[in-house]
Amino acid sequence: MKTLVYDRNEKKLLEKVTLKSIPHYINNVEYLVWTDIENPSKENMQFLLDHFRFHPLDIEDCLSIIERPKLDEYDDYYFLVLHIPYFIKQTRRLVPFAVNIFIGNNFLVTVHRGLCKPIQNTFNYLTESHQILDKGPGYLLHKVIDSLIDYNFPILNKIYRNIHNVEDAIFKKASSKNVKDIMLIRTNILTFRNIIFPQRKLLKTLEIKDMDFLIEALEVYFSDLVDHIEKIWDTLENCKELIEGVHDAHQSLLSNKINDIMRVLTIFSVIILPLALITGIYGMNVGLPLGSNPFAFIIIVVSMIIVIIGMLVYFKYKDWI
Fold first, then answer.
1. I need a surface site. Which of 20, 36, 86, 150 has the fewest CB within 10 A?
2. What pLDDT shows up at residue 253?
3. In this structure, are strands 77-88 and 93-104 parallel, antiparallel, or unpaired?
4. Which domains, from first to last, does the chain contain?
């Protein structure tokens, strides 16, 4: 548990903030408190329940592994659940990473399982720059959500690059190996869309809220967040169409490749058929023309070569090869 306490009168961060001293600053408008819990435990959640007076169901949601994005309103605070995509290197797949946020008149509490880089970077930034803290909890909430949304763009750019890489690969050489890459990208795009879709409505709802800690001046800031998430959604739609096009192109290239293989094999089969007929006839133990001729073998071989050349010329004339 990390806590940042800002004295709004002295315009500075308090040093040596202990767990026991935090309740003293809660609901005291002279201070702004940000508590970040990286790995929620029952002890931490009990601390929030006892001193911040959060609803037990919200505490339960923080301990839940899977919780949909949502916004719960109470008389003196809001509870938000936001998701960002998290990339697992071992499986190369995206999974949703939940960030739980409580915001009140003078506090912000963030709860998440494991390291959350956007929040860590924002926390470190605010220890050096206090300008946002001086404006109040609403601006702090905007800064945190903005960092979470901005975290989507590098992942989005990586997906876009992967699409172009697999597109180049299939036009160089279409193979079954590309299918795995295409399906992986499609899965990540669908997961990304499922993460972003419910949060579009959530941020639009948050944009029009009016409470002491979400003043009217913040409307333009949250409107900007809505624009960013809509941009992410539009880009995901484009990526979805691109990967579908790449998949269709790959299927067409594979089909053409199979057709070429089948055409070559068919030509070989058709050429061998008359040769097999000739060798079959002259392999019989009966009297045949040229049977006693000492040059019979050479004549038969030359005849077979002429048949092969004649068939190849005919296939070429028909544009079959």
1. 20
2. 83
3. antiparallel
4. 2-254 (3.30.460.20), 255-317 (1.20.58)
Rounded mean pLDDT, 28-55: 89
Distance between CA atoms of residues 257 and 276, nearest Å: 28
Confidence of residue 204 (pLDDT cuts 50, 70, 90): confident
Handedness of CA 256, 260, 261, 263 (dihedral sign): positive
- The region that residue 114 occupies, defined by phi over 0 for left and psi between -120 and 50 for alpha, beta otherwise, is left
Average pLDDT rounded to a whole number, residues 280-300? 76
- Dist. CA 218–CA 215, nearest whole Å: 6
Q: C-alpha distances in angstroms, 196 versus 32, 62, 144, 230?
A: 30, 20, 17, 9
Strand (E) or helix (H) holding 38: none
Give me the half-sphere count of Cα atoms (radius 13 Å) on the Cβ side of residue 114. Answer: 6
Strand partners, 112: 99
Q: Are 243 and 185 contacting, i.e. CB atoms less than 8 angstroms apart? A: yes
Please state, as a whole number, how many other Cβ atoms lie within 10 Å of the Cβ of residue 281: 11
pLDDT at position 216: 67
